[in-house]
Design brief:
Distance between the termini: 23 Å
Helix content: 10-25%
Shape: elongated
Strand order of the largest sheet: 11-19-18-22-23-24-21-20
Number of domains: 2
CATH class of the largest domain: Mainly Beta
Largest sheet: 8 strands, antiparallel
Structural class: mainly beta
């Protein structure tokens, strides 16, 4: 099993991707009180361990290939939000290397995530991936199967295997090999054991992100992207914590919504459905169990003060298995590892009846991968609150969606659209364009109810 320590606090104020393209949502997180507060009127509502062996990847349509130091726009051909790049490296740590410690630094990056193509260690030895201060540490234990492979001379890249480590916040990751016993005779080296990093995913610098945003805006202006995302009027999405007093129920429900970091460089949003180990996101975010396996699921990545900069320490777990997926309804139901670690953040329930026009809604989300926000206020709706505009809107299929004018931007594909009246999910957000739209959850429920 793969387990990891939670991430340390980082920057909170959201980066608004105002012109970002297809499939997502946002808010700027800058206001000190949520939009539409006067109309709310709702009563208050009541350790690190060893990773598992790499899993075989399933054939599936993939995203645009990552090229080192190249910006190809914030939305790839699959529809996930791009926030980073892959760097090719070839770095040995310990055993055959000169040092048991290596640093991977990319000035300006907000996270660094290393990938191992060889992890063959003797029992008792382990590797840590940490920030320079040691406040965030992820530990990878030796695996008996890896040891056997090393002794037989096999290499991870020959079998197409490899293993991502959990990301660390900041622009530097420190990889260190810890030996259980000294090896003055060099037995480990002779045995063919070793630890090697072959690539690193790192977040865009501010300049790179600005270039990516500019590229996306140009594509939108040229009409090249089809389902453009945009803020509908003024951007009124706010930090989730801004609703802690104004709408406690909405704030509580936002805790069940998670940030998804996919393949180290792409983002979507997902949320916990029901009391068991079930998560829901878009099909264009995740298709196979191989996709889930390489996805970090961050819970409680939220600002601790309305309009502030500090965030709660998120709890991060790995995605695990895809149970059901469908392109036309654009959903994927999946599980996570270490489910017990995230149960405390609660869950969402779904409304099985068809949504109605005028139903007031709110959308907890992770726009651009930023700390959690809620889109509830709307200057495009009477009364200043987001509401269903068309309950029979065309998505990938006829009448599959509901439309609304909640403010959106890149990165929140897969967010829940929740009724303010019932606090139940009525749609799964996936398209923009003012109106934006989400797949009707009653249609999704008919496909997945036997799996819940």
């Amino acid at each position: 099993m793969r387990r990891t320590l939670a991430l340390v606090a980082g920057a909170c104020t959201a980066v608004v991707l105002a012109g970002a393209t297809a499939y997502a949502m946002t808010g700027d997180g800058s206001a000190q009180s949520p939009a539409g507060t006067a109309q709310l009127g709702k009563a208050p509502a009541a350790a690190a361990a060893a990773p598992r062996a790499p899993q075989a990847k399933e054939a599936a349509p993939g995203p645009v290939a990552d090229l080192p130091k190249q910006i190809s726009g914030v939305i790839d051909s699959v529809g996930r939000q791009r926030v980073g790049a892959l760097e090719s490296v070839d770095s040995l740590v310990g055993y055959h290397a000169e040092s048991d410690r290596q640093e991977f630094s990319y000035p300006g990056a907000d996270y660094v995530k290393v990938h191992f193509d060889q992890l063959t260690m003797l029992p008792g030895d382990y590797v840590t991936v940490a920030d320079p201060a040691g406040t965030e540490v992820h530990r990878i234990e030796s695996d008996p199967l890896d040891v056997v492979g090393g002794l037989l001379g096999s290499r991870a890249e020959e079998s197409g295997a490899g293993r991502w480590a959990m990301s660390v916040t900041g622009d530097t990751a420190v990889v260190e090999l810890h030996r259980a016993l000294p090896d003055p005779l060099g037995v480990r080296e002779v045995a063919g054991l070793g630890v090697r990093v072959d690539k690193v995913a790192r977040g865009f610098s501010s300049a790179e992100q600005e270039a990516a945003d500019s590229s996306a805006r140009e594509a939108t202006s040229a009409g090249q992207t089809g389902r453009e995302e945009s803020v509908c009027g003024s951007n009124e999405a706010r930090d989730a914590v801004c609703y802690k007093s104004a709408d406690p129920a909405a704030y509580k429900k936002s805790k069940a919504v998670a940030r998804l970091l996919i393949n180290g460089t792409e983002l979507c949003t997902g949320w916990r459905l029901g009391t068991t180990n079930r998560m829901l996101t878009n099909n264009h975010c995740m298709v196979t169990s191989g996709d889930a396996y390489d996805t970090e699921v961050w819970f409680d990545y939220q600002c601790n003060k309305c309009g502030g900069h500090a965030v709660f320490k998120p709890t991060k777990v790995w995605g695990d298995k895809v149970l059901s997926t469908n392109r036309e309804l654009d959903y994927t139901l999946f599980t996570v590892e270490n489910f017990a670690q995230v149960q405390k953040f609660g869950y969402l329930s779904i409304e099985t009846s068809r949504p109605k026009s005028g139903t007031e809604v709110y959308i907890p989300q992770h726009p651009g991968g930023d700390p959690g926000q809620i889109a509830m206020g709307s200057d495009s709706d009477d009364g200043g609150i987001c509401a269903v505009d068309d309950p029979l809107y065309d998505g990938y299929g006829q009448d599959t969606d509901v439309s609304y004018y909640c403010d959106t931007a890149g990165g929140s594909s897969g967010s829940p659209v929740i009724s303010r009246k019932t606090d139940r999910v009525i749609a799964l957000h996936h398209f923009g364009g003012c109106p934006n739209s989400g797949v009707r959850i009653d249609l999704v429920y008919n496909r997945i109810k036997k799996l819940l």
